[in-house]
């Protein structure tokens, strides 16, 4: 620069800054002139602190000394942090944009679906787009991020996650925010050093088209960022009393402070600092008026007395000493306490306590319900001496902003009423919470009665302007809907509301005097509630008893039960046993009709409350064959989705089914759960369904909502296509040849306006040996959601475990030929195979056998021996016959031709020449071969036998020779 323009710098003419960090994490401190024409006299650059250097909370970095120093009192510093608590506009560094939800309609314009700054907070979108709010920050050391959020509506999916410079994101299970049950919720997450991008992401999902409440975000604080070189002054209405404060505390009520205050100051006696904490100024106190106090009844004392008492509205802002101010009226005289509410009794200390289970009262003493009756449980409030334990009141000055003033409704003996508010635009809220509902066991639910409970209240409004009384119902005080509203003055009247869902457990009466004036001009406008009665409440008390059908169907039944398996005869208290294999149905009237026979192939459980299947089944076919089934491999709970569905905006979702086919009392039921809300409501039974949002909507999580039961009782198991009014037509599924389908029939006790007879389900089990998966379940092609009318659901389950058990009739044997003395018997299945499990296929059998060659040789040998023997026998008998012929011829010759005269014996001695004859006759004394030889010698060559003829002379000659020898 030129010499005449150069000026020697003073310390106030420049400030210090750090250069950018180099690769080694080092930097320099340099002086930067505050004016552009300052160019000489600046301090030389010096080595700066390391880039990782930072100061603690309540400290700042003095650049002159490069040392951390504590902030002075009245100031604060986050040290290594930044805070965002003002949202008049989007703070620097924050980015918000809207994108089309993955799976949604690509033509949907989501450019305007962003987070919107709204003063103290920033609000999310409420349409079916994804709104993202992000903030990028570089941390020099590990730090934290904390914020407050208000998340009242489960129709919005709200997630917060962090992505670091390694592109690693927060675990999907911990990124989902919990529903806010009361007011603002706090959340805090640890951050790693380095670059971090914070994301707040919301997606509304309106299946029913109802209005959605946005998510609110405020007080975002991040620690671990670069140092701060200055401390910030406390805002008006806050202060920091000690040096080194990390934040400023709000001033207490009725005090105030200015900017950078170290203490809060009391207002002058004739002034007040507003009704909320953190006021920056004082206002003049107005003169006390009738709108500055309210009346109430004191609790009953030990003598059973109460009195009317007047109290100033806190915090008190009016002045009693000002001219024209009213004084607080004196308390009234003590009077006898009103009776307790029905279902309660008076204790010795004059307090009211609820009657025990099985007892009822009119507000004085408890009495036991007679035999055969049950208490009608609920809550009935008609005497207002104290606020009931399950009711509370609160004031909201504007939407989502809570007031310190909590007296909104006050008891007044015969009624409860709205006290004068801080401002006429305040919402005065009376909230009643109940745990849930249960229908009495004896309640006969006809086709026209579907409500779980009903709430009835008597009210009155007296107004001089446009006041409104709202009645809301929902699952908490934030997530509720306006049921009815009344404007202006309304005479004393009664209103009833039917409760159809077990999730409706919060009721709110909200009174607003006007929407236009913030003053206290209409404090005398009032709403009164004289009586509230709600029925069938779990944990409620009873004011009367009703007749009931005695049974042991429910363990928690208030009805005095007969023994298991018995019913009451005409309500007389006499119990009689039911017939075999029947259970007690609570909906049935007293009498034998309470005993219901179990359906086919089911047995009653031990508690006589339902019929169950042990997963086994015996079926006789028309041909007389016996089929045995064992479905126990399919008994475990199985889940599967339907085909994808789409909303009007194109968002995809599924109907998720859960099935628990069969099992005894100890079986695990099918469960469908609502994991969107904090309540985690779930239903259990045989078959249930819920709506599932795919993972694209909620990153890697599966979102399940709107669960309901399809079947909670088993009607029967049969091959018939209809049972007890529930049918499973064959046209729903393509027929399969072979075995008939086994059908499980279920029914649900839940009745809706659309399904006045309740829902039902049929599950067809079809034998398919080729299906090895256990969850091969399909829906009808004509009814993609499993139902054509919304009430009757049908499923087809194909599995090899749905086949009958294999028996001997399912296989045959094949016997092989005898090879080398071995014969094999092989067993094979009959085709087509329609069985599974049961008897296994027998192993191959091997046995010894005799071959054909052996039998052939044996036959030839035996035949040869038989032939020889036969020839020998023939020869023997032939020779015998020939000898007889010879003797006969000899006799005939000896007779001389005389008939009828036998010859006489010539001699007894053996004659010469008879040796050959004797040899022939003595066959028994000769061997077989000798006989054959003798036969051959006596044969002539001409083929004829030689028969010697002996004359009488030769015989005579022999006789003489014999005599001479003698």
From TrEMBL:
<feature type="region of interest" description="Disordered">
    <location>
        <begin position="942"/>
        <end position="966"/>
    </location>
</feature>
<keyword id="KW-0812">Transmembrane</keyword>
<keyword id="KW-1015">Disulfide bond</keyword>
<dbReference type="Pfam" id="PF23087">
    <property type="entry name" value="MRH_ELAPOR1_9th"/>
</dbReference>
<dbReference type="GO" id="GO:0005764">
    <property type="term" value="C:lysosome"/>
</dbReference>
<dbReference type="InterPro" id="IPR039181">
    <property type="entry name" value="Elapor1/2"/>
</dbReference>
<dbReference type="GO" id="GO:0005770">
    <property type="term" value="C:late endosome"/>
</dbReference>
<dbReference type="GO" id="GO:0005802">
    <property type="term" value="C:trans-Golgi network"/>
</dbReference>
<dbReference type="InterPro" id="IPR056607">
    <property type="entry name" value="Elapor1/2_MRH"/>
</dbReference>
<protein>
    <submittedName>
        <fullName>Endosome-lysosome associated apoptosis and autophagy regulator 1</fullName>
    </submittedName>
</protein>
<dbReference type="GO" id="GO:0000045">
    <property type="term" value="P:autophagosome assembly"/>
</dbReference>
<dbReference type="InterPro" id="IPR044865">
    <property type="entry name" value="MRH_dom"/>
</dbReference>
<dbReference type="InterPro" id="IPR056606">
    <property type="entry name" value="Elapor1/2_C"/>
</dbReference>
<feature type="domain" description="MRH">
    <location>
        <begin position="613"/>
        <end position="805"/>
    </location>
</feature>
<dbReference type="InterPro" id="IPR009011">
    <property type="entry name" value="Man6P_isomerase_rcpt-bd_dom_sf"/>
</dbReference>
<comment type="similarity">
    <text>Belongs to the ELAPOR family.</text>
</comment>
<keyword id="KW-0325">Glycoprotein</keyword>
<dbReference type="InterPro" id="IPR009030">
    <property type="entry name" value="Growth_fac_rcpt_cys_sf"/>
</dbReference>
<dbReference type="Pfam" id="PF23031">
    <property type="entry name" value="GBD_ELAPOR1"/>
</dbReference>
<dbReference type="GO" id="GO:0005886">
    <property type="term" value="C:plasma membrane"/>
</dbReference>
<keyword id="KW-1003">Cell membrane</keyword>
<dbReference type="Pfam" id="PF23089">
    <property type="entry name" value="ELAPOR1_C"/>
</dbReference>
<dbReference type="Pfam" id="PF23091">
    <property type="entry name" value="TNFR_ELAPOR1_6th"/>
</dbReference>
<keyword id="KW-1133">Transmembrane helix</keyword>
<keyword id="KW-0472">Membrane</keyword>
<dbReference type="InterPro" id="IPR056608">
    <property type="entry name" value="Elapor1/2_GBD"/>
</dbReference>
<dbReference type="InterPro" id="IPR056609">
    <property type="entry name" value="Elapor1-like_3rd"/>
</dbReference>
<dbReference type="GO" id="GO:0044090">
    <property type="term" value="P:positive regulation of vacuole organization"/>
</dbReference>
<dbReference type="InterPro" id="IPR056610">
    <property type="entry name" value="Elapor1/2_TNFR-like"/>
</dbReference>
<feature type="transmembrane region" description="Helical">
    <location>
        <begin position="854"/>
        <end position="878"/>
    </location>
</feature>
<dbReference type="GO" id="GO:0070062">
    <property type="term" value="C:extracellular exosome"/>
</dbReference>
<keyword id="KW-0732">Signal</keyword>
<dbReference type="Pfam" id="PF23032">
    <property type="entry name" value="GBD_ELAPOR1-like_3rd"/>
</dbReference>
């Amino acid at each position: 620069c030129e010499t005449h323009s150069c000026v020697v710098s003073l310390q106030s003419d420049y400030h210090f800054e750090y250069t950018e960090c180099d690769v080694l994490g080092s930097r320099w401190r340099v002086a930067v002139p505050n004016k552009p024409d300052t160019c000489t006299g600046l301090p030389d650059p010096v080595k700066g602190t390391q880039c990782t250097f930072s100061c603690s909370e309540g400290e700042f970095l003095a650049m002159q000394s490069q040392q951390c120093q504590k902030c002075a009192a009245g100031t604060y510093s986050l040290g290594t942090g930044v805070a965002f608590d003002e949202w008049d506009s989007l703070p620097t560094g924050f980015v918000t944009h809207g994108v089309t939800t993955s799976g949604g309609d690509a033509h949907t314009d989501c450019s305007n679906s962003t987070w919107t700054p709204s003063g103290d907070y920033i609000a999310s979108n409420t349409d079916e787009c994804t709104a993202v709010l992000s903030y990028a920050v570089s941390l020099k050391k590990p730090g934290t991020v904390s914020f407050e959020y208000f998340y009242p509506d489960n129709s919005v999916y709200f997630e917060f996650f962090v992505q670091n410079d390694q592109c690693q994101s927060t675990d999907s299970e911990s990124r989902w925010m919990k529903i806010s049950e009361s007011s603002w919720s706090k959340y805090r997450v640890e951050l790693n050093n380095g670059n971090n991008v914070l994301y707040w992401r919301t997606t509304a999902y309106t299946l029913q088209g109802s209005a959605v409440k946005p998510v609110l975000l405020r007080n975002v604080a991040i620690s671990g960022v670069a140092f701060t070189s200055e401390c910030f002054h406390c805002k008006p209405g806050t202060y920091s009393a000690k040096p080194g404060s990390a934040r400023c505390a709000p001033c207490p009520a009725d005090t105030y402070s200015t900017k950078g205050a170290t203490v809060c100051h009391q207002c002058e006696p004739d002034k007040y600092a507003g009704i909320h904490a953190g006021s920056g100024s004082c206002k003049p106190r107005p003169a006390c008026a009738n709108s500055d106090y309210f009346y109430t009844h004191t609790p009953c004392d030990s003598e059973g007395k109460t009195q009317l008492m007047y109290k100033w509205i806190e915090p008190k802002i009016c002045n009693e000493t000002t001219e024209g101010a009213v004084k607080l009226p004196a308390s009234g005289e003590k009077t006898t306490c009103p009776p307790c509410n029905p279902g309660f009794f008076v204790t010795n200390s004059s307090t009211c306590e609820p009657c025990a289970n099985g007892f009822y009262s009119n507000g004085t003493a408890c009495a036991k319900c007679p035999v055969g009756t049950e208490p009608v449980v609920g809550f009935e409030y008609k005497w207002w001496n104290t606020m009931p334990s399950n009711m509370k009141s609160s004031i909201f000055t504007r939407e989502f902003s809570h007031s310190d003033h909590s007296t909104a409704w006050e008891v007044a003996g015969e009624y409860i009423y709205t006290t004068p508010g801080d401002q006429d635009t305040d919402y005065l809220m009376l909230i009643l919470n109940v745990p849930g509902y249960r229908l009495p066991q004896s309640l006969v639910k006809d086709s026209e009665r579907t409500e779980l409970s009903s709430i009835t209240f008597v009210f009155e409004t007296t107004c001089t302007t446009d006041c409104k009384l709202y009645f809301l119902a929902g699952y908490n005080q934030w997530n509720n809907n306006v049921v009815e509203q009344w404007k202006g003055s309304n005479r004393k009247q009664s209103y009833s509301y039917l409760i159809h869902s077990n999730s409706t457990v919060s009721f709110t009466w909200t009174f607003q005097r006007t929407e236009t004036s913030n003053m206290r001009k209409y404090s005398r406008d009032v709403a009164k509630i004289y009586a509230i009665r709600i029925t069938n409440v779990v944990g409620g008390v009873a004011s009367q008893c009703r007749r009931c059908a005695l049974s042991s169907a429910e363990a928690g039944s208030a009805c005095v039960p007969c023994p298991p398996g018995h019913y009451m005869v005409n309500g007389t208290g006499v119990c009689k046993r039911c017939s075999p294999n029947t259970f007690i149905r609570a909906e049935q009237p007293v009498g034998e009709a309470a005993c219901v026979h179990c359906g086919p192939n089911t047995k009653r459980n031990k508690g006589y409350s339902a019929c169950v299947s042990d997963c086994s089944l015996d079926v006789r076919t028309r041909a007389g064959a016996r089929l045995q089934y064992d479905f126990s491999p399919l008994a475990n709970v199985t889940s599967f989705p339907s085909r994808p569905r789409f909303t009007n905006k194109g968002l995809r979702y599924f109907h998720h089914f859960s099935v628990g086919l069969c099992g005894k009392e100890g079986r695990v039921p099918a469960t469908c759960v609502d994991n969107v809300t904090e309540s985690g409501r779930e239903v259990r039974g045989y078959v249930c369904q819920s709506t599932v949002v795919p993972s694209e909507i909620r990153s890697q999580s599966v979102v399940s909502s709107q669960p309901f039961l399809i079947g909670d009782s088993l009607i029967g198991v049969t091959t018939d296509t209809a049972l007890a009014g529930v049918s499973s037509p064959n046209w729903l599924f393509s027929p399969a040849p072979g075995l008939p389908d086994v059908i499980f029939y279920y029914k649900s006790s839940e009745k809706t306006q659309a399904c006045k007879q309740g829902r039902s389900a049929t599950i067809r089990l079809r034998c398919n040996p080729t299906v090895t998966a256990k969850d091969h379940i399909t829906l009808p092609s004509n009814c993609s959601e499993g139902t054509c009318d919304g009430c009757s659901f049908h499923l087809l389950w194909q599995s090899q475990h749905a086949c009958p058990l294999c028996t001997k009739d399912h296989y045959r044997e094949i016997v092989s030929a005898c090879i080398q003395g071995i014969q094999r018997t092989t067993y094979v299945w009959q085709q087509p195979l329609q069985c599974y499990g049961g008897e296994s296929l027998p192993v191959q059998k091997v046995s010894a056998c005799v071959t054909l060659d052996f039998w052939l040789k044996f036959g030839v040998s035996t035949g040869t021996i038989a032939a020889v023997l036969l020839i020998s026998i023939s020869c023997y008998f032939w020779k015998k016959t020939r000898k007889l012929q010879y003797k006969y011829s000899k006799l005939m010759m000896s007779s001389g031709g005389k008939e009828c005269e036998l010859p006489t014996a010539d001699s007894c001695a053996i004659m010469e020449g008879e040796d050959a004859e004797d040899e022939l006759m003595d066959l028994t004394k000769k061997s077989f071969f000798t006989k054959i030889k003798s036969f051959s010698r006596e044969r002539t060559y001409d083929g004829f036998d030689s028969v010697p003829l002996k004359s009488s002379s030769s015989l005579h000659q022999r006789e003489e020779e014999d005599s001479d020898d003698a």
